[in-house]
User: Fold these one by one.
Assistant:
Number 1:
Amino acid sequence: MFYVVVAFLYVSILFYLLFGGADFGAGIIELFSRGSLKERTRLLTYQAIGPIWEANHMWLIIAIVILFVGFPEIYTFTSVYLHIPLSLLLVGIIARGTAFIFRHYDPVEDYFQKIYNAIFVYSSFMTPFFLGILAGTAISGRIDTEAQDFFSAYIQPWLGWFPVSVGLFTVVLCGFMAAVYLIGEANTVEDRDLFRQKAFRMNMLAVVSGALVFLVGELQGIRLFTELLSHPIGFIAMIAATLALPITWIMLRKKKVYWPRIMVGFQITMILLTLGASQHPDFIIFRNGAISLEGAAAGESTIFSLAMALLIGSLFILPALFYLIYSFQKQPVSVKKLN
């Protein structure tokens, strides 16, 4: 049952990156768009994620509940030593959701629309950025549990080049996913070509920012590549993600719609597998040691009850979620044009 819980934990994190990350990426694409493309991105974003955007946070909630119930030591450690980036992540989620609703349903179109738009795009950048910072800090070994002052204990660990580089890499990945997904949502050939160009640019930025993560890691003594070489699964996953790049480019150049989506999902899956396998069995690495999932797991009865709850709950939640997505894709959505 332990491995059932771990599988649900990783799947929930993966699905949050795939679905929630693409939603954040739509705001990132809008942030770095100009002119008519910004407006078209805004409208397509509402068409694509408007009906189901709230459901994406279900995966984050599941991951948090699993950590809280099944791995309380990890939950407590993260909540204490990473409470600032974690709080900023939650602020970004709340601000983005609030702005998304107000900018589409506010009955009065005035100056506040610009404020809603600004909050939406900047929080769309902020949320995956701090999600990446959390991940980067967790594997960097920068947390000092023996620190004697507030700055050293709660700010310095995540305010460094390596966590920031992972945060930027996460932002670019979200933008890349969104650009690829929005190709299929575009209503005209011109819009599809514009989002293909965005996808190519974001993909190149993802390659550069990914290389930057490895470079900064090496400079700061975080031997990511060395760790990958010692873990065959992680190394194979990294090779698979790399080989998927030219396939994605070919599919984009051939103006395919659904195959690039599949390849992007595969790449994100491989990247997460690379990260997880390279650090196995550790889940959080700090200056004085590490915490593994096995070592931080709750008692057997708790793990068993949690696993059964996840298995039974998935029988009801997953079919309903997929039907929700299917039903909204089949129904026309009324789009309100924003200034």
Number 2:
Amino acid sequence: MISKSQLKVKRIFDVVVVILFLPLLIFPIILLVLIATIDTKKWGVYSQLRVGQYGKLFRIYKIRTLVDGDHQLGQLESSATSIGKFLRQTKLNELPQLYNVLIGDMSFVGPRPDLQGFADELTDDDRIILKVKPGITGPATLKYRDEEQRLKLQNDPEHYNRTIIWVDKVKINKKYVQNYSFYLDLRLILKSILNK
């Protein structure tokens, strides 16, 4: 089980890494925001409320990739611009979340932050997942990196997501918190970078 001291070390690591890399990435992020603004004809930063540590809501930031409209689960990629598809596939649209990590809403590694109606409704020992900050990457994120493609193949993506994918993600994220180690975080970051 992750301890208070491990949570502190995890936070220190997050802040140090963001401070080291943000100066190098700030110009590419600004450039991507400008490109997305021109591409989608709306402000290039997208924000949305998500469920964070201890069930507290926070605002997540991403590079905008979708055009206006009603975005259905399993059809997000078809709502994305051609540049937006590239940003989503390469995960470059997630770069503004470095700000979320810096201010303490997120961590580099942890369960992906969910919309209301999922993590905030966890019960009993499943709520252990809420002990940690949501992450840019994590074990469930890596397993379901092709989640949009999987959902696109389903007749009822919403039902499949709630009954199959979400249930499995809860199991994976519980195991992550219960068996946490700093070394595990480093491995998951490396896997994410190498896309393996």
Number 3:
Amino acid sequence: MYRIILKYLYYVSYMMDPQLVVKRLLEYDPNIVEIVQFGSSVYAPEHARDLDLLVITEKMKEYSGYLDAVADFNADILVFEVGKIPKEDLLRGVLGSFRLLHGDGRFLLEYARQLGDPSFEEARASLRAALDYFELSKRTDNNLVKERHIKEAFDAPFHAARIASMVYLSTEVGRWGLIRRELEEPYRTAFNSFVEILHIKYFYNGEYPREGLEEEFNKWFKKVEEYISSLESRVRSR
């Protein structure tokens, strides 16, 4: 049994090794200029089940070839040619938590500069979406669909807080580590709780309370709502 466990752990570590993935991708496409790891394998590596990768290349080859290159790994891959801009919601998701695996980051930085300025109204739109997700969770008898809606209902307030923090800090990049470092108290502690509870524990791990669910949702919704209002008030008083 001990040897089986060791073999499994070695297999998992191999399948999650980003540098091996980079090597395979460059073997297929030497014109790749940047490879960016993002998502759960960056912000919660102890829980991650796969690698999310953004590949930027000078000239895109057959997409199936990129899939074949990472076929032996637990990896999902998005490929863009230089000059092609990812959709804004995807790009904000990548910039939320990423690690540069190949290249100097200048193309990713240029993508970030193409983003429109975030706004408090955008933050509140994400907060309103949380209400919609929670209502949808109450309208279905399918447990899998219900869980998906509940998790999104808790995650949307986190993204609302992240956007509001970006506005407050006057930054285009929504990387959580940067936001955590730049925010002063009490906002830093509040934002940390949104990351750790709403995004990682409730959304990613699905460890939201099964009893008193609506009360829990309303509690966090109000906390984020007050967080956004407080940041906006501070901005207006500058």
Number 4:
Amino acid sequence: MYILLVEDDRSIAEGLSYSLKQEGFEIRLCENVTAAKKVIEEELQEISLCLFDLTLPDGSGYELCQLIKKKDDVPVIFLTAMDEEVNVVMGLDMGADDYITKPFRVRELISRMKSVLRRYTKQTSNSHKQILAMGPVHIHTLEAKVYKHSHEIVLTALEYRLMMIFANHQGQVLSRTQLLDFIWDVGGEFVNDNTLTVYIKRLREKLEDDPQRPVIIQTVRGLGYKAGETNASS
């Protein structure tokens, strides 16, 4: 599995490269934005996951994340310093999948990497599934119908599209900006931030046992929302 690692601190880069190689990963190491852009242009199809330092000598991990997400849906994890953590929301808005704060344990990073890779594998599989499950809620994609404990839940077209976005991004924190972008892309209609709040509230009222303590569509404070664990069946 091919990992693009962009890190300008040589000691961190070499130590991390060694540890990841021991886990069976193939590492492509770059120390700056310029070198990373060249790899992305020439070797994108081989890249399984990207690890981007946020602060680089000739730019930032943000622009690399933006570039790679425009080209393909390759998972991205940011490596951030403690004082950069507050800026991670910007990265999530660009489509980053996770972040880990320096200093970190290599085992924790590898666990995060495997979790993201599993999620992407499962999402690819889910795109071919007829039924998606989020706890007691089941989405029958061929019929575009939603059931909870075998009882149909009537959703509007936009509520259904929002539900599908959560179902296809299980376990991933989605910022409000990402959700608005997804809805715009899928529906081709304007939805503002206030409208999104209303639709999430309506979904919770229809789906949750206790809308005040949601477990199907969870709030991640300061970052956005996350769907509960999703399972799929054919």
